Amino acid sequence: MAIDGLISLRSDAGPKQTADRLKAELQARGLTLFAQIDHAAGAAGASLALRPTELFVFGNAKGGTPLMQAAQSIGIDLPLKALVWQDEAGACWFSYNDPAWLTERHGVAEPTQQVTAGMSALLGAIAKAVTSGAT
Fold first, then answer.
1. In the predicted model, is pLDDT for residue 93 greater than 80?
2. For residue 81, how many other CB atoms are within 10 A of its CB?
3. 28, 41, 53, 104: which has the highest count of C-beta atoms within 10 A?
């Protein structure tokens, strides 16, 4: 199922190991992990069932500020977010918003191409490391 602006890669590991890889990768790259939200734990607290689903909110001002200087409204989509989740078949996935889609959404794709390209490359490298264990 394709969702506009969302990039999803299947992980070769389970949700916990994938989440641990993500935290290690963010730290290794000097990115700040602002929040880690365990949606499954929240569901359990409400007596509801949900497969493993964790949201990570991360970034740094050097990457996000130029986008917000171009369009402050993009602040609704920043910092960056990634979702580690398990599907109904038991496969683990790593999903994140495509930075190019975000800048298109806020009407600043052209003036922020260089920043967006760098952000896309960084997220692609993080996604590869997180889903395949390759660094």
1. yes
2. 17
3. 53
Q: Which value, in Å, is the radius of gyration of the alpha carbons in the chain? A: 15
Q: Residue 50: helix, strand or coil by DSSP?
A: coil
Collapsing DSSP states into helix, strand and coil, what is residue 84?
Answer: strand
Contact indicator for 86, 48 with CB cutoff of 8 Å = no
Tell me how long the chain is: 135
Which pLDDT belongs to residue 135? 61
| Beta-bridge mates of residue 53 | 85
Residue 135: closest CA among 118, 19, 127, 95: 127
Give 79's DSSP letter. S
Contacts of 60 (CB under 8 A, 6+ apart): 30, 31, 32
Non-local (6+) Cβ contacts of 21 within 8 A are: 13, 129, 130, 133
The token pair at 34 is 């602002």
| Extended strands (E) in the chain | 6-10, 32-38, 53-59, 80-86, 92-97
Phi and psi torsions of 92, nearest 5°: -100, 140
3-state class of 31 per DSSP?
coil
Q: What is the pTM of this model?
A: 0.95
Cα-based distances in Å from 19 to 3, 34, 38, 98: 22, 14, 11, 19
